TrEMBL record:
Residues 23-356 form the Glycoside hydrolase family 29 N-terminal domain. This is Putative alpha-L-fucosidase. One of its GO terms (biological process) is glycoside catabolic process. It comes from Blomia tropicalis. InterPro entries: FUC_metazoa-typ (IPR016286), Fucosidase_C (IPR031919), GH (IPR017853), Glyco_hydro_29 (IPR000933), Glyco_hydro_29_N (IPR057739). One of its GO terms (molecular function) is alpha-L-fucosidase activity.
C-alpha cells in the first residue's frame, strides 16, 4: 500500500513537471504577446454590452468627456453650461457628491442584458477622469466608496452578470486627464513613468486580482508609447500569472501606435466597422446614442439608432468576422433609460428568432451579396445564412447558384420556402406570407442547405 502511494505521488509529480515545462510562458515583447491564441469563448460570443458610467453621468451633458471639454478644450457650449447653471468656483470633483446611484439594481441590469441576447458585458471601471468604480486602494479616495454612492458598483455588477451566465469584463483608461503624476511624466517627455509605476500598474493588478474580468478593454493610450505604459510586461503577467490567464481577452489600445497592430482583438478606433476582411479578430465598439458613450440628458429620439440600424451594424460586423460591443450610458441614478432598454429588448427578440445565424458563426466565402443591397452572409455548422435587411416579395441571392441549393428555410417561420432559378443562374427566394405578429419583422434570415461541393 505504501509503495502504491509513493508511485502515485511520483507519477503526479512527473506529470506536473512535464506540464510545467511544456506550458507556454509569454515574454514581455509584442512578438511573444501577439502569439497567444485568442480564447475561443470570445469569437463564439459575437455580441456584448458596453457601459460608460462614472462621475460624467452626473452633469450628463455633451459626452463622457465633459470635464476636459469644459476645462481642457474650453468648448463654448460646455463653458456656458457651467456658467449658466453653477456657481463660479464650482469644481468637477463636486459632481461626485451627487453621484448617488440610488436606483441602481445590478440584478435588473443583468436581466436586461440577458434578454438582449448579449453574451458578455464590459463596464467602465475607470474613465479618463480617474474615478474608479470600485474601492481601489490606489485612487487617492477618488472612488465609489469614499466619494459618491458608498457602494462597490463594479463588484455588484460583476456578481449579477455572472449569475446570468454572462461573461464580465472591464474597460480601463490608462491615462487620467489631470492626475499630477501623469502630468509630471508628460512634462518630462515621458522619460519618467512614476504614474505607471505607482498608480496604473498596481491599480490594474488590483482590478484583475479582485474582480477577475475576462475582458480587459484598455483605452487612453494615445499620447505616449507602450514603452512608457510598460504594456508588454503587464500583458505577460496577465497571460502567465493572473487568475484569468487562460480566459482573458484584451484589445489593441496599449500605447501610441499599437492600435490595429498588437493585442488580442483589434478595435482600432471607436465605432470601427471596416467593411472588409481584416485577417485578424476585431470588434466594433459602437453606441446606440450616435453622439455619445455616456448618457446625455439633451439626447433626442433622432440621436438614437433604430433597431433596423442596430441589426444592420450587427449583420455587417459579423459578415466580416467581427464582434459587436453595443454601448449604452446609464444615468447618474443608476438606471438605463427606457429608449435604450427598448433597443436592447428589440435586439433580444430578434436574436431569439435568428440567433443560430449569429452565435458561433463564421465568415462565409462571400460577405455581402453581389446583386441585392443590404444582404449579408454568415456560415455555421455547414449552413449558409442570408441576413436580409429589406423586405421584398422575391429576393435574389446573387452569391448563391441555384444548382447548389438543396433547401431553404426562413428562421422563425414554419411555412415552406419556395425558390426558383434566376435568368443568370442564381437563386430567387419567394418570401412566404407572414402575419404582422408571426415574425420579428426587422430583418429576415434565410437558411440555405447547399451541396458541399459548392459550399
Amino acid at each position: 500500500m505504501l509503495l502504491l502511494q509513493v508511485i502515485h505521488k511520483w507519477l503526479a509529480f512527473s506529470l506536473f513537471f512535464i506540464l510545467s515545462i511544456n506550458a507556454v510562458r509569454y515574454e514581455p515583447n509584442w512578438k511573444s504577446i501577439d502569439s497567444r491564441p485568442l480564447p475561443q469563448w470570445y469569437d463564439k460570443a459575437k455580441v456584448g454590452i458596453f457601459l460608460h458610467w462614472g462621475v460624467f453621468s452626473v452633469p450628463s451633458f455633451g459626452s463622457e468627456w465633459f470635464w476636459y471639454d469644459w476645462q481642457g478644450y474650453h468648448r463654448p457650449n460646455f463653458v456656458n453650461y457651467m456658467k449658466n447653471n453653477f456657481r463660479p468656483d464650482f469644481t468637477y470633483e463636486e459632481f461626485a457628491s451627487k453621484f448617488w446611484a440610488e436606483f441602481y439594481q445590478p440584478d435588473k441590469w443583468a436581466e436586461l442584458f440577458k434578454k438582449s441576447g448579449a453574451k458578455y458585458v464590459v463596464l467602465t471601471s475607470k474613465h479618463h477622469e480617474g474615478y474608479t468604480m470600485w474601492p481601489s486602494k490606489y485612487s487617492f479616495q477618488w472612488n465609489v466608496m469614499q466619494t459618491g454612492p458608498k457602494r462597490d458598483l463594479l463588484g455588484e455588477l460583476a456578481k449579477s452578470v455572472r449569475a446570468q451566465n454572462l461573461t464580465f469584463g472591464v474597460y480601463h483608461s490608462l491615462y487620467e486627464w489631470y492626475n499630477p503624476l501623469y502630468l509630471k511624466d508628460k512634462s518630462n517627455g515621458f522619460a519618467t513613468n512614476e504614474f505607471v509605476r505607482f498608480k496604473i500598474r498596481p491599480e490594474m493588478e488590483e482590478l484583475v486580482n479582485v474582480y477577475k474580468p475576462d475582458v480587459v478593454w484598455s483605452d487612453g493610450d494615445w499620447e505616449p508609447t507602450d514603452v512608457y505604459w510598460n504594456s508588454t510586461d503587464f500583458l505577460a503577467w496577465l497571460y502567465n500569472d493572473s487568475p484569468v490567464k487562460d480566459t482573458v481577452v484584451v484589445n489593441d489600445r496599449w500605447g501610441k501606435g499599437t492600435g490595429c497592430k498588437h493585442g488580442g482583438f483589434w478595435n482600432c478606433a471607436d465605432r470601427y466597422n471596416p467593411g472588409k476582411l481584416q485577417g485578424h479578430k476585431w470588434e466594433n465598439a459602437m453606441t446606440i446614442d450616435n453622439y455619445s458613450w455616456g448618457y446625455r440628458r439633451e439626447m433626442t429620439i433622432n440621436d438614437v439608432k433604430t433597431i433596423h440600424d442596430l441589426i444592420y451594424e450587427l449583420a455587417k460586423t459579423l459578415a466580416y468576422g467581427g464582434n459587436i460591443l453595443i454601448n449604452v450610458g446609464p444615468t447618474m441614478e443608476g438606471t438605463i433609460t427606457p429608449i435604450f432598454q427598448e433597443r436592447l429588448l428589440q435586439l433580444g427578440d430578434w436574436l431569439h428568432v435568428n440567433g443560430e445565424a449569429i452565435y458561433e458563426s463564421n465568415m462565409w466565402k462571400y460577405q455581402n451579396d453581389t446583386i441585392t443591397k443590404d444582404l449579408w452572409y454568415t456560415e455555421r455548422a455547414g449552413f449558409v445564412y442570408g441576413i436580409v435587411l429589406q423586405y421584398n416579395s422575391k429576393i435574389e441571392f446573387g452569391s448563391i447558384d441555384y444548382s447548389s441549393v438543396n433547401s431553404v428555410t426562413l428562421l422563425g417561420c414554419n411555412d415552406k420556402v419556395e425558390f426558383i432559378k434566376s435568368p443568370n443562374g442564381h437563386v430567387i427566394v419567394v418570401f412566404p406570407n407572414l402575419t404582422p405578429l408571426s415574425h420579428a419583422k426587422v430583418a429576415y434570415v434565410f437558411k440555405f442547405v447547399l451541396n458541399q461541393m459548392n459550399f
